[in-house]
């Protein structure tokens, strides 16, 4: 009888152990959040409102240009407000800070490295992102490689979509963040 | 008797528990792959074939230069084809997209940030890399900090070696990726 | 009796299982180290000693400038000596290599991407860092997203503080690294 129950304990234990990789394969996020950030690109006239600018470019540096289109080689730096909903006029809960580099000569693709610096009653801390951004796709997955504060040591996947844009001056990005490693 | 078996179960459990860190110390990859990427640097004449270009440089920007050698301060952006073997003419399975910055004044060293965007029957997804690249060393280890798709949440180490080069126009890099966190 | 002990084993097992997330929440580092790195910025006259330089800037590239202050848009590249204590003259144990980009128009904030390349009897390997650096704050937390060699697959948090500075030519940064994932 005791042996039977011990066996039962053993099976329960093994079932739980094997549950760990199984659980991971289900891809259930331990934390989920949706945030928006607003990129107002400097066009020479909107310095007061602009939140990002091209800071290096082959043509600016008189370097021979590999491609005349798709902004190839432009490096843009941004410090964009983050909001909880999709309104540019909502109270910011933080700033998206970092850079992107246009890196293809035959389509619009960028490489992103940036950080969400969140500072509100809602969230305190930073989230670090990196990855390739094929801008014309409806959704793009990039990596969340780390975090600090409320997001201490977190990892996950961020799904980015262009929620709205106005010419080449305003872009609103929706970022759905699914964390799969929470601490 | 029941107590003895229970103790046995306990010991088996503790053995299994302590096996987790032990397993990690053996550094057994959960996934392994070797890929090649091909960097054709723009030299002003090969725009059709070029896959990378210097997009910012101190001399280009008329900034005072710290060093005249080793390309110090040059920022190169690339969108290179990835192949399964070492032939430039093999069918690409994806693109290596990102940048490197030459960062030393007395030798050839770069800082790498890039992503493999894989899109084939073989692999679907992205792999994110970051790290220091002491180019003249035979092999260089950098970090795989994340991934998406087939490489969802993966982490690992990439060992890079210069497989071939032709002057300053063509570089072929062999990348051996060992994933130690698979999902 | 056997059943009771089996139950005890079960409870012990469950207690241990639930201890894993609990342990993480205590944030006990598995490895801890403090290092200093020394950034000697090139000012046009100190080429022999300089370890970093501005390699791209909107004004350098004749790009219209978004902001005239806070170095907005400047990209600096560095290859700084790392020491175990806060003396610039101590024997270096490695190099801090990477870049920062000034990314705000109304205060001093940078985005950091760099690697510690350690090569001493003390440490062999690399540590990869990324994150936002609000320079004027006393301490800033960034992410350690990976490592190689002695820091194989490590992750953690780095707390950066400006230990000393001299004008705009010398900065000494204290980096307290707490690893929470060791292998």
Automatic annotation (TrEMBL), chains A, B, C:
Its main location: secreted. The keyword Coiled coil does not apply. Gene3D superfamilies: Allene oxide cyclase-like. Keywords: Apoplast, Secreted, Signal. One of its GO terms (biological process) is phenylpropanoid biosynthetic process. Residues 1-19 form the signal peptide. It is found in: Secreted, Extracellular space, Apoplast. InterPro entries: Allene_oxi_cyc_Dirigent, Dirigent. The keyword Signal applies. Belongs to the plant dirigent protein family. Homodimer. This is Dirigent protein. It comes from Lupinus albus.
């Amino acid at each position: 009888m005791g042996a039977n129950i011990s066996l039962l304990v053993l099976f329960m234990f093994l079932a739980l152990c094997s549950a760990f990789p199984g659980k991971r394969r289900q891809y259930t996020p331990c934390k989920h959040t949706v945030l928006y950030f607003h990129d107002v690109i400097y066009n020479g006239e909107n310095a007061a409102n602009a939140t990002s600018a091209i800071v290096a470019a082959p043509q600016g540096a008189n370097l021979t240009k590999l491609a005349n289109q798709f902004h190839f080689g432009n490096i843009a730096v941004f410090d964009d407000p983050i909001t909880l909903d999709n309104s540019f006029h909502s109270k910011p809960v933080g700033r998206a800070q970092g850079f992107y580099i246009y890196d293809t000569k035959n389509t619009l693709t960028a490489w992103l490295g940036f950080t969400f610096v969140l500072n509100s009653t809602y969230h305190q801390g930073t989230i670090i992102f990196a990855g390739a951004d094929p801008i014309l796709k409806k959704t793009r997955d990039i990596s969340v490689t780390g975090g600090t504060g409320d997001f201490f040591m977190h990892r996950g996947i961020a799904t980015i979509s262009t929620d709205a844009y106005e010419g080449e001056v305003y872009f609103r990005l929706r970022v759905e963040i699914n964390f799969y490693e929470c601490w």
